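User: Could you write out the 3D structure of this protein bound to S-adenosylmethionine? I've included everything you need below.
Assistant: Certainly. Input first, then the structure.
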Amino acid sequence: MHIDIISIFPELVRHWFSQGVIGRALQKKEDPPAALYYWNPREYSDDRHQRVDDRPFGGGPGMVMQYEPLARVAQAINASGDKPLHIYLSPQGSTFNHTLAAELARKPRLVLWCGRYEGIDQRFIEEYIDAEISIGDFVLSGGEIAAAIVIDTVLRLVPGVLGDEQSALEDSFQQKLLDHPHYTRPENTATIRAPEILLSGNHALIERWRLKQALGRTFLHRPDIFCQLDLSDAQQNLLNEFLTEQQFGEPS
Ligand code: SAM
């Protein structure tokens, strides 16, 4: 996958992906599964101070990112191959979630536009933007954090990015369920012992326990997701077992 990031602060995003599992995937010498490219609109500005913003028509506070430098970047990107999907990170866009991330992960190339100030001149949005994505009902100072969230989430779903593909498949939301709880050594902390089943080595029982926890957590914490599930009889029984254990404790 090829992702272009357009920002007047590209280092913010570049730094984020210099480490960790995504950083390692991007730095693979042979066949990296994804590549990030950075474009700074200042380099496409006619202004001798490389400004890309100006006062809003009609007055009011703040500045607006100008059409022209952004349009030059968009034209350069569109001229360099098949037209990619241009996404403006904006609090006014569709709310980002797993389903949208999975859809984006199937695209060969994404272009992520990071706004600053009061945002981008509307004429640029109308002419070049295919979709607007928000990461939530709040306002950030710039689109870079939002772009980093979209990139991280999408790349986890691109084959070859995670060391173990199975781990993304088991994450929350993949099966319309929250993930089960996780434990590691030591077996005992000062106050709590890890669940006995996880220490038993019985993989069938461990899988059953994990599904039960995932069903129970989704039921308790995310009724909005839970109500979309069509449970089999076996899953309903597992959930009932979970709820009984919540009330009376797990059998020892
Ligand atoms: N005046 C704009 C509004 O109220 O809709 C907000 C502009 S905000 C200060 C500057 C930039 O941050 C936006 O152009 C956008 O790129 C980014 N941004 C802010 N909140 C965001 C959100 N919830 N999701 C995605 N991007 C966001």
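The first helix runs from residue 10 to 16.
User: Perfect, thank you.
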